[in-house]
């Protein structure tokens, strides 16, 4: 894998003809990969990809790279960005300024990410959990459009989910009523599970579904595991968690994204069958994320257009 220092940068002078128009940066800091994109609108799925590289585990190393990279982007666009929306693979502090919990990004916890990026970009910065950003993207432009109560599930380096609850059948516009909330979906405890999670708890769902934990346990990436019994257990544990989710929140549809789901298209039909076999007095539809791995980036840009009360950190 290439190092961030060798990542490609936008050509000097690109976008000069539109330098009077504002532009925005969407940043998706995942446990494995970081992606950047630029857009002229905050509420759009039309973005220009800028870069993708392995996420540095060292916070200060990553910040130093972003400082140089964002300066080159500003030079290319002829101005500072109008804002930076950031999707992060970790729970965000209640004040929206830093990462509070992140088993897959431990060195980012407690660091002033919003302030540091605001200084670098000389602009407003908003943070949200990557599942919230995926939810916002899918709700506005993807599989959750028009759903009053829905959820976004990511199956990747970690397992995570966010829910959107509204009392009406709103269309998914960024200004519609309702609230989005990341939930500790992957850290619900499974009866009889004695495995220790990277978060420190014993018995988390993530020990059966999290890409990093499974790779550490099996010595190879999840996509390389072909054992039928492994996938049967994966589906069984995850289906139970999804049933718990819909019984507790009454969400009716879940958009499923993340590398594990995107690389194994048969997984969602398996999960749907397992959910249907056990769920009673409710219904739950599982759909592939329409925006695929772009959902968190699209949602990150939307953060800049949202009314703050829409998000519950």
How is the secondary structure organized here?
Blueprint: E1 24-29, E2 33-39, E3 48-54, H1 59-77, E4 83-88, E5 91-92, E6 99-101, H2 113-121, E7 124-129, H3 130-141, E8 149-155, E9 159-165, E10 179-183, H4 206-209, H5 211-218, H6 228-249, E11 253-257, H7 259-263, H8 267-278, E12 285-288, H9 295-302, E13 311-312
Parallel strand pairs: 1-4, 4-7, 8-11, 10-13, 11-12
Antiparallel strand pairs: 1-2, 2-3, 5-6, 8-9, 9-10
Helix pairs in contact: 1-2, 3-9, 6-8
Report what the structure shows.
This protein is α/β, with parallel strands linked by helices. Helices cover 32% and strands 21% of the residues. The chain has helices at residues 59-77, 113-121, 130-141, 206-209, 211-218, 228-249, 259-263, 267-278, 295-302, and strands at 24-29, 33-39, 48-54, 83-88, 91-92, 99-101, 124-129, 149-155, 159-165, 179-183, 253-257, 285-288, 311-312. It has a 6-stranded mixed beta sheet, sandwiched between helices. A 5-stranded mixed beta sheet has the order 3-2-1-4-7, with helices on both faces. A two-stranded antiparallel sheet has the order 5-6. Strand 8 (149-155) and strand 9 (159-165) form a beta hairpin.
